[in-house]
Structures are given as C-alpha cells and as structure tokens.
C-alpha cells in the first residue's frame, strides 16, 4: 500500500509503496507484485519496508478500523481469521476490538516471524496465533473446519484482483467460516472512466526511444527496439489521476460489483468479465485510454446505513494503489453523447499469480472500436514515481539534491 502516501513499484509492481497525506514521503519500497515466482512474492512481503509502506497508508488503515468499529458487537468473543496478516496489524486490531481468538495466516516466513514477535511484545500472543503458511496449505488440524466467525483480509492489488486474493478468501470461506459468518470486506467495485491525454502516449513511446540509437558506443541498438516497444505495451500505467482529468467524474463512472462473499468455489474467479455503458461525457473528446480503480465496501448487516469504504478513486484520500491507466491501442474519437461501451475481461494466469486484462471500447455512433491489452496487471509502470532524470543533476558543488527535498526518502515527493 502510499505523498505523501501511495502503494508500489519501480517499473514493475506489487503495490505502490508510498503513502500520502499523513505527511509521509515516498519510501522507495518495491513495487507490489511483479514477480513470476511465488518465492519472489514472499520475498517482497518479507521486506519490512514494503510492510511499512502499507502501515503508512492512513486511508487504508482507517477503512479497516472503521469496519472493526462498526462490527464491534460481532467481534466480542469471536474467532477471527486474518488472511495474509503481514505485520499482523489487522489481527491485532481484531484482538483490540474484542476477538477472543485470531488466526493470523501468513505465507511469507520472514514477516510471519516478525508478526509473532510483535504479538508477544504487545502481549497479544494469547489471542493472536500466527499460522506461518499459505492459506491453501492450512489444514483442519491447524484450524477446525467451520470454526471461524469473521474472515478479514487485505489482499488487494492493482485493479483489485492483481494478486489473486479473491480466490484465497473464497477458499477460506468454504473451509473455515461458520454458516452466517462475516467476511470483511463484503463487496468490491471495479470502476472505469475514459480520459483524453495525448501527451501520455507520446511520453510512453519516448520511454523506449533509448533503443533507437544507431551509434551507442559504436553500436546500433535498433534491433532491440521492437521488443522494447512490445514490453512497454504490456505494462499497465500506475498514476495519480485527478478527477478533472477524467471525461466522466468518479462518482458517475460505471462499475462492476463483485460479491466477495457469495461464491463457494474459488474457480469462479478464474475469469471475470463484464460490460459497462458509459454515461454522457463532459465534452467531445479523442479518448486515449481508460482509468481504472476499485472501491471495497464493508457492507455486512452490522455496518449500518453508511458502510465503511476503502476507495482508491481519483480524488479520494491517496492510497498505495494509486490508479491504473489502460492505454487504448489507438485513440477513439467520441462526441459527448455518443453511446460508448466497454467489454472487460480479466483472466487469472495459469500459475494463478496474477491476471491479464483485455478491453474493447466501442463507439456505437461511429461504429469504431479500440482495444486495451492483453496486459498483465502484475506488470506495471509506476509513472507517478518516474523521474525525468534517472541520474540526479549535480549542483555546482558536485552535490546531488535529495530526491525528496531533504527528508531522506529515495523518491521525489508526489505532486497530488
Ligand atoms: C497486502 S499484504 C497485507 C498485510 C496486512 N494484512 C496489512 O493489512 O498490512 C498481504 C499479505 O498477505 C500475504 N499473503 C498473500 N497471499 C497469501 C496466502 N495465499 N496465504 C497467506 N498469506 C498470503 C502476503 O505475504 C502479505 O504479507
């Protein structure tokens, strides 16, 4: 999860790991989820700087705290399972809100050890039991079947699903949740809005212009150009998007609602496909791409009229996830009132580590169609972290200015 706080990536990504508003500058943590092997994934979450990035994400933490507050009556004396406990934060919160037993499941051995130490140091080890395993490997000897009252998790990534978290929650529900038990959060929205930004396409093309050189130390590099271009087209762009950059404001943008509680079979998450119709835009435009984000809603029956929401929308308090920008293969001209639809398909990778996304945007007035992808959600370009100069310009004293203006961070502060 982080400007002054977003979650992620270098040029690839797990989460953007810098948090905002709480005055926290970029931590320089690794991007969330760009690994092709589960070892790399464990290693990423085993690094404390990446856990720290999530803990610094005040908007994220506050949404979970509000959900626990609303569910306080249900938490009294309850048995809770926290899937992917990381540092243990949600497990410890559950204990503080009255749970009598918390199973804190963590697949990364390094961070599981840290969570154990924190449990003991905070005298919560009588309540919080760290289970240092992937959820998929947890047996009924570890946790009795159907014995859990509340499942909580934060396994979200880019465009929500990037880290194969929904499957894990469904599996846990199937095996360990008692009938009528609570799952936090209960639903999530995948949201899309078109944008016009001709400069973005030009900028992305310029990213591989390095390989256009015909005399780089006497070498012609252009043979690498097609691959450089292809690799960049396969990246999603993570960015901080302002609401006014969108052709449909976030609150009017259409979305697909995912029921995180309903399914009994994790396989249902193998393919997620939906079609949305966009309302009229603010103006005629040449659409360059779609901005994507998600909102998770703690909507259980105990949550009252205004359920807590963890929103990663443009304009919402910044989070480690920032927003995704999906570039169309070609710009699509559309009048403000043209009927515009998008078909979106997300497919889990065979190795079940991430998803690829494909979209078809259709202008029903002109009959023209443009496409996104397939792009891997685990393959990110964290544009908000990109700096114009990879190597700092030195001043007349031969000193490089601190990238964060002197606070000691590795990345330039994010302009929100
Ligand atoms: C995004 S972090 C969240 C950590 C913590 N819950 C928090 O809110 O700060 C997700 C954690 O889940 C762990 N994880 C991911 N998939 C898992 C699985 N299938 N079983 C157990 N742990 C998993 C990761 O190693 C990581 O520590």
TrEMBL record:
<dbReference type="GO" id="GO:0005737">
    <property type="term" value="C:cytoplasm"/>
</dbReference>
<dbReference type="Pfam" id="PF06325">
    <property type="entry name" value="PrmA"/>
</dbReference>
<dbReference type="GO" id="GO:0070611">
    <property type="term" value="F:histone H3R2 methyltransferase activity"/>
</dbReference>
<dbReference type="GO" id="GO:0005634">
    <property type="term" value="C:nucleus"/>
</dbReference>
<dbReference type="InterPro" id="IPR029063">
    <property type="entry name" value="SAM-dependent_MTases_sf"/>
</dbReference>
<keyword id="KW-0949">S-adenosyl-L-methionine</keyword>
<dbReference type="GO" id="GO:0035242">
    <property type="term" value="F:protein-arginine omega-N asymmetric methyltransferase activity"/>
</dbReference>
<keyword id="KW-0156">Chromatin regulator</keyword>
<keyword id="KW-0489">Methyltransferase</keyword>
<dbReference type="Pfam" id="PF22528">
    <property type="entry name" value="PRMT_C"/>
</dbReference>
<dbReference type="InterPro" id="IPR025799">
    <property type="entry name" value="Arg_MeTrfase"/>
</dbReference>
<feature type="domain" description="Protein arginine N-methyltransferase">
    <location>
        <begin position="206"/>
        <end position="357"/>
    </location>
</feature>
<keyword id="KW-0804">Transcription</keyword>
<keyword id="KW-0963">Cytoplasm</keyword>
<keyword id="KW-0539">Nucleus</keyword>
<dbReference type="InterPro" id="IPR055135">
    <property type="entry name" value="PRMT_dom"/>
</dbReference>
<keyword id="KW-0805">Transcription regulation</keyword>
<protein>
    <recommendedName>
        <fullName>type I protein arginine methyltransferase</fullName>
        <ecNumber>2.1.1.319</ecNumber>
    </recommendedName>
</protein>
<dbReference type="GO" id="GO:0032259">
    <property type="term" value="P:methylation"/>
</dbReference>
<keyword id="KW-0808">Transferase</keyword>
């Amino acid at each position: 999860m982080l400007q002054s706080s977003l979650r992620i990536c270098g040029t690839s990504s797990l989460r953007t790991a810098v948090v905002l508003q709480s005055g926290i500058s970029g931590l320089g943590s690794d991007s969330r989820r760009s690994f092709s092997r589960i070892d790399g994934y464990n290693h990423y979450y085993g690094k404390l700087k990446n856990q720290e990035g999530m803990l610094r994400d005040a908007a994220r933490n506050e949404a979970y705290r509000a959900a626990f507050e609303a569910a306080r009556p249900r938490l009294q004396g309850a048995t809770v399972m926290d899937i992917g406990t990381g540092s243990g934060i949600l497990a410890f919160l559950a204990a503080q809100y009255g749970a009598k037993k918390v199973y804190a499941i963590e697949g990364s051995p390094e961070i599981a050890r840290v969570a154990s130490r924190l449990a003991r140091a905070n005298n919560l080890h009588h309540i919080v039991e760290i289970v240092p395993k992937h959820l998929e490997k947890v047996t009924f000897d570890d946790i009795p079947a159907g014995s859990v009252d509340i499942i909580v998790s934060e396994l979200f990534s880019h465009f929500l699903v990037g880290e194969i978290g929904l499957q894990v929650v469904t599996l846990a529900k199937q095996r360990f949740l008692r009938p009528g038990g609570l799952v936090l959060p209960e639903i999530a929205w995948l949201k899309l809005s078109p944008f016009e930004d001709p400069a973005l396409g030009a900028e992305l093309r310029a990213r591989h212009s390095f390989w256009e050189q015909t005399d780089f130390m006497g070498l012609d590099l252009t043979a690498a150009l097609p691959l450089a271009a292809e690799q960049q087209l396969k990246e999603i762009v993570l960015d901080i998007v302002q609401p006014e950059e969108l052709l449909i404001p976030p609150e009017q943008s259409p979305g697909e609602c995912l029921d995180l509680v309903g399914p009994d079979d994790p396989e249902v998450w193998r393919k997620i496909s939906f079609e949305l119709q966009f309302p009229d835009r603010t103006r005629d435009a040449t659409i360059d791409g779609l901005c994507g984000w998600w909102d998770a809603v703690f909507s259980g029956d105990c949550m009252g009229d205004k359920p807590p929401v963890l929103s990663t929308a443009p304009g919402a308090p910044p989070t480690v996830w920032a927003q995704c920008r999906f570039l169309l293969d070609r710009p699509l001209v559309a009048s403000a009132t043209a009927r515009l639809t998008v078909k979106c398909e997300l497919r889990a990778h065979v190795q079940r580590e991430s998803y690829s996304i494909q979209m078809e945007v259709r202008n029903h007035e002109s009959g023209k169609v443009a496409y996104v992808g397939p792009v891997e959600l685990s393959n990110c370009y964290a544009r908000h972290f990109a700096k114009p100069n990879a190597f700092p310009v030195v001043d007349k004293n031969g000193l490089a200015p601190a990238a964060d203006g002197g606070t000691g961070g590795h990345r330039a502060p994010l302009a929100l």
